């Protein structure tokens, strides 16, 4: 397929609304957000979500529930954060929790899963007339040449060829989309982490792949068609191109948020250094502490934005 270039400047919308870019939507009598089990006729989306200012997304439903509980406490909200309920309880595809102005949603693993969630989330924020929303993916990743437990704030998501783009097949064409993230937000997050001064944090490129095993150059999958030397050559090349971590959602996340005028960041902790191995061997307790790191950083950022610290 010949690639179709679709580079857009960050859609600046003076009113701060999230915009959908689909003329067909206006013709729908009702919009059913099927994978959330929410809809414009069955739910009062403006009253449920109109005050949302921060959306945090991450792969695992349990981790996003923990994050919502943590934010409930961090924001000093009334009541017991432990009783927080899943807004998407009617479906087991995604989980969603709300703590004041902070929405936490799980997105599952991989580009197709997060992409479906983002279509419905962006429409939800649009129908709810939410304004000035910042969206952050908090996740896990494999590091390249950096200490495990390091948090990487993505400046740009790249594909497996280290290109700053995301290719989406639409009908029978390949549409190429920009994967830049919000630089000022990334720098602001780095400053927050320096203030916490609890764990190493860097800004770097994040490589987004379609697979965890062969797609990330692992030697321990059910299939492997390359040598150990070829693996290292590839990872070194990635490092040389500025890649500091590898995960599976950042490119479509960056592309969709960019097109819809959402200020977006990707903050992932590294669970291992891929130059040292492929298997995740740290104990459950160590991994649990690592996964709290992006959460602590985002809590600090949100508290600062709300002038709570
Ligand atoms: C990071 O971790 C998951 C794979 O273990 C995947 O969702 C990702 O991006
Ligand atoms: N998530 C990934 O996608 N890769 C890793 O190596 C670790 C977590």
Automatic annotation (TrEMBL):
Name the UniProt record assigns to this protein: Uridine phosphorylase
Q: Which SUPFAM superfamilies match?
A: Purine and uridine phosphorylases
UniProt catalytic activity: 2'-deoxyuridine + phosphate = 2-deoxy-alpha-D-ribose 1-phosphate + uracil; uridine + phosphate = alpha-D-ribose 1-phosphate + uracil
List the Pfam families: PNP_UDP_1 (PF01048)
Q: Which family does it belong to?
A: Belongs to the PNP/UDP phosphorylase family.
Q: Which residues are involved in binding substrate?
A: 216, 218
Q: How does it assemble?
A: Homodimer.
Q: Which UniProt keywords apply?
A: Glycosyltransferase, Transferase
Q: Which residues form the Nucleoside phosphorylase domain?
A: 53-303
Q: What would you give as a GO molecular function for this chain, any one?
A: uridine phosphorylase activity
- Output the lineage of the source organism: Eukaryota, Metazoa, Chordata, Craniata, Vertebrata
Q: Report the protein's function.
A: Catalyzes the reversible phosphorylytic cleavage of uridine to uracil and ribose-1-phosphate which can then be utilized as carbon and energy sources or in the rescue of pyrimidine bases for nucleotide synthesis. Shows broad substrate specificity and can also accept deoxyuridine and other analogous compounds.
Signal peptide feature range: none
EC number per UniProt: 2.4.2.3
Single GO biological process annotation from the record: nucleotide catabolic process
């Amino acid at each position: 397929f010949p690639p179709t270039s679709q580079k857009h400047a960050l859609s600046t919308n003076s009113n701060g609304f999230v915009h959908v870019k689909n003329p067909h939507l206006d013709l729908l009598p009702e919009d059913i957000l099927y994978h959330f089990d929410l809809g414009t006729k069955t739910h009062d989306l403006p009253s449920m979500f109109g005050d949302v200012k921060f959306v945090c997304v991450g792969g695992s439903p349990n981790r996003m529930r923990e994050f919502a509980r943590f934010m409930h406490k961090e924001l000093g909200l009334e009541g017991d954060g432990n009783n927080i309920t899943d807004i998407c309880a009617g479906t087991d595809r995604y989980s969603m929790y709300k703590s004041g102005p902070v929405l936490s949603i799980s997105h599952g693993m991989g580009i197709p899963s997060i992409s479906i969630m983002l279509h419905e989330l962006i429409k939800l924020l649009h129908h709810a007339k939410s304004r000035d929303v910042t969206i952050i993916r908090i996740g896990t990743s494999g590091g390249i040449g950096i200490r495990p437990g390091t948090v990487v704030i993505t400046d740009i998501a790249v594909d497996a060829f280290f290109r700053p783009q995301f290719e989406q097949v639409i009908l029978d064409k390949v549409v190429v989309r920009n994967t830049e993230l919000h630089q000022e937000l990334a720098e602001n997050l780095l400053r927050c982490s320096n203030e916490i001064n609890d764990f190493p944090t860097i800004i770097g490129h994040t490589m987004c792949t379609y697979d965890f095993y062969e797609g990330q150059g692992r030697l321990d999958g059910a299939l492997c068609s390359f040598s150990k030397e070829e693996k290292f050559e590839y990872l070194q090349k990635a490092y040389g191109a500025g890649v500091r971590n590898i995960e599976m959602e950042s490119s479509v996340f960056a592309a969709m948020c960019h097109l819809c005028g959402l200020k977006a960041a990707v903050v992932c902790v590294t669970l291992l250094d891929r130059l040292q191995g492929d298997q995740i061997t740290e104990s459950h307790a160590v991994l649990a502490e690592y996964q709290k790191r992006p959460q602590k950083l985002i809590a600090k950022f949100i508290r600062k934005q709300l002038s709570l610290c």
